[in-house]
């Protein structure tokens, strides 16, 4: 599995996907690194779903999340939106993601 990360440490880094139209989202699976490097970078994180291109402006799925192991399944309980994003809060953070799976209708 390949992973991606922000180039430098940043304040409040984020990632988002445009679903192309409004969808009802039930669950988002977020995959982290499982090798010996950098798995701690993702904790804590937030998953957001909504209509704004500004990730953190959208409602959060189930609040602050932590991951241990290769992935975390985050319940979104039917939130609706065109955009799904993963965001970190704080200064000097590096966002590393290996895979994000969005489940909904």
Automatic annotation (TrEMBL):
Database matches in InterPro entries? BG_Antigen-Binding_Lectin, FTP1, Galactose-bd-like_sf
Check the record and name the SMART domains matching this protein: FTP
Pfam families assigned = F5_F8_type_C_2
Q: GO molecular-function annotation terms?
A: fucose binding; metal ion binding
The UniProt keywords, alphabetically, are: Calcium, Disulfide bond, Lectin, Metal-binding
The Fucolectin tachylectin-4 pentraxin-1 domain is annotated at 1-104
Where in this chain does the entry annotate a coiled-coil region? none
Q: Which GO terms describe its biological process?
A: regulation of cellular defense response; regulation of complement activation, lectin pathway
Q: Which family does it belong to?
A: Belongs to the fucolectin family.
Q: How is this protein organized at the quaternary level?
A: Homotrimer.
Protein role:
Acts as a defensive agent. Recognizes blood group fucosylated oligosaccharides including A, B, H and Lewis B-type antigens. Does not recognize Lewis A antigen and has low affinity for monovalent haptens.
This one is known as Fucolectin-like
Q: Which organism is it from?
A: Branchiostoma belcheri
The lineage is: Eukaryota, Metazoa, Chordata, Cephalochordata, Leptocardii
């Amino acid at each position: 599995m390949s992973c991606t990360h922000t180039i430098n440490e940043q304040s409040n880094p984020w990632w988002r996907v445009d679903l192309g139209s409004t969808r009802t989202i039930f669950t988002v699976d977020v995959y982290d690194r499982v090798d010996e490097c950098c798995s701690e970078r993702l904790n804590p994180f937030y998953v957001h779903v909504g209509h704004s291109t500004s990730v953190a402006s959208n409602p959060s799925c189930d609040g602050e999340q932590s991951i241990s192991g290769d992935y975390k399944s985050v319940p979104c309980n039917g939130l609706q939106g065109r955009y799904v994003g993963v965001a970190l809060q704080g200064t000097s953070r590096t966002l590393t993601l290996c895979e994000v799976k969005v489940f909904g209708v």
